Amino acid sequence: MATVQKTERHLLPEFLRSPSLPTLLIISALAIGAAALLPLVQSSIATTTNGNVHRLEQQRDDWQARIQEMELEVATMAGLERIEQAAMTDLKMVEPKDTRYITTAALAPEPRRLPSRYLPPAAEEGQSEPAIWEQLLHWLPLP
Predict the structure, then answer these.
(1) What residue spans of the chain are helical by DSSP H?
(2) CB-side exposure of 102: number of CA atoms within 13 Å?
(3) Which of 31, 36, 101, 124 is the most exposed place for a label (fewest CB within 10 A)?
């Protein structure tokens, strides 16, 4: 008798060709479960992101409050009375009894130059010609 050698076939292609009912049920249950978990995962991610945003907004508000406190402190320290008081108490300075003025032959320093946006608008020099509509009005015989 002649024998034919059988080669081992892979089980996977055979399994994919004819899946049984329990296998189909398991695969469909896994797909439905994954689809049901997807909104839960998305909601969890959105909740976490919202918490992070809220925490960052709280930190921003805290920093803005600190900045306002520091601005207030700087404003109170910059007052002339506060500076005079600090000079008298901390540095032991006193008002002079007599004031002496010294004159020198040097020229006075030039005034500080401000950017043009801080200066008042320059006055127009000289008379400009009247506008065209003003010239037309002069031609009309008006009472």
Answers:
(1) 11-17, 21-77, 80-89, 132-139
(2) 2
(3) 101
